[in-house]
Amino acid sequence: MIATHLHTDHTGLAGCTREWDCELWMSRSDFYMCKVMAADGPSDVPEDAIRFYRRAGFTEDRLDRYRQRFGIFGANIAPLPAGYRRINDGQYLEVGDREWRVLIGHGHAPEHVCLYCPALKLIIGGDQLLPKITPNVSVQPSEPHANPLKEWITSCARFRELLPPNLLVLPAHESLYEGVHERLTALIDWHEVALEKLYDLCGTPQRAVDVFPALFKSEINEGSFFPATGESLAHLHCALERRWLTVEEDDNGVAWWRQA
Length: 260
Ligand SMILES: [Zn+2]
Ligand SMILES: [Zn+2]
Known about the structure:
Blueprint: H1 8-11, H2 17-20, E1 25-26, H3 28-39, H4 47-56, H5 60-69, H6 72-75, E2 85-86, E3 92-95, E4 98-105, E5 112-117, E6 122-126, H7 148-162, E7 168-171, E8 177-178, H8 180-201, H9 212-215, H10 225-241, E9 245-249, E10 255-259
Parallel strand pairs: 1-2, 6-7
Antiparallel strand pairs: 3-4, 4-5, 5-6, 7-8, 9-10
Helix pairs in contact: 7-8, 8-10
Bound molecules: zinc ion (ZN) (2 copies).
């Protein structure tokens, strides 16, 4: 069994390999991160994670909601096997009588596996190559200073260089499509436009929870508040590394972002 990346909608049943006595194949970062996240219990909410969301601008109410939902990752996934077989970028896998080249993308997951079959002119794109929605690119408490958006944009550009234009893409959500180059360009452009809107918004100081209008058309509801905050932080960190923005913490530990 091959899992493209660690998210529970892609690994929830990967633990079946234990019963079926078959190997689980994954990238190394995603296998171990999945194990670590699944091991978090509801009662061990770390204080640095609370500081992380307080810094982003969460109210005490919302921090309580975070405490309540902590540890749900493990509840949504069957326990993984003890070991796995590592998949590396550039490697060729033989499945049936076909060769599949492994391409690893970053930003949505630490090491997201895509499988490209030149003979079939086909790529299994997972969440890395979705046709319409932009996959969530988030900063998480586990790596609070990360810049996953930079990695995401770099991966999209690299895939566009490596893949031929005339491919059929099998994404993990929504329908198959053609035009992978156009899609990758659209994904990069979407984030570049969002970064510019973010810069404009930060003409006056903003918290991470204030900049949703730069990134999302629709209203952010309760269910999407956490991924939306992670996504805001990903854009803020990218803009910070480009030196478009600066950040300062106030006496309550809340970070305020403004134009550099
Ligand atoms: Zn995913
Ligand atoms: Zn998914």
